[in-house]
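Page 42, continued from yesterday. The earlier attempt failed because a stray header line got pasted into the input along with the sequence. Redoing it now with the clean sequence only.
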Amino acid sequence: MEYILIILCLIFMSLYLYYCEVKESKHAGLYKTLASLCFVILAFINYSGNRNLINMLFLIGMCFDALGDILLGIQSDTLADKLFLAGTGGFMVGHIFYLLAFFSSYRVSPLVFIVIGVTLGLIANSIIQKNCKLTKTLKICSVIYTQLIFNIAILSLGVFLNDMNLRNALILISTTFFCTSDCILIACDFYKKEKWMHPVYLTLYYIAQIIMAFALKL
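This time it went through. Structure tokens are written below.
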């Protein structure tokens, strides 16, 4: 069942890219929604066999990510800005639950990793705001989002260094893919869009979710 869900997730992702990039269909978001449901179902299956607080926090985070996917996949000319902010909000909430999961995983103080994550987030945000014309709302989102994605990546590194096992290695790979995907997404949406960006960041994102869902069983 797990491998079927993984295959279906990648198939739906490919269909979304095809109907979005090639056909430019307004119904492309349906396939994005189905791809997200696949990794959420996979996460639920793995969580049901390995219930604990940390896995629950990761699972909730993945559910909010899927909600963000669904909202961003809706095609509407009149609600485009609101859907973008709502979808981004879903990802932010999801990332907050990831952070809570990492804080719950630490056996020593994560202060050093937090300082590194905050510093990288500030540098990334300064680059974004220097090169992109953003509204006040988007500037606030930029500050929060860059802090979240870089702190998630650095904190997951800290968790792995504290306890080097397969589960933490997979989670580190997953969050690294998340961070890379988000950086490409930001460049694509606000700086300079290249044809390769959309399929690359989307592929990284779904692979990251699949890896994260698989890690919940370990």
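Notes: The chain has a mean pLDDT of 86.
Reminder to self: strip header lines before submitting.
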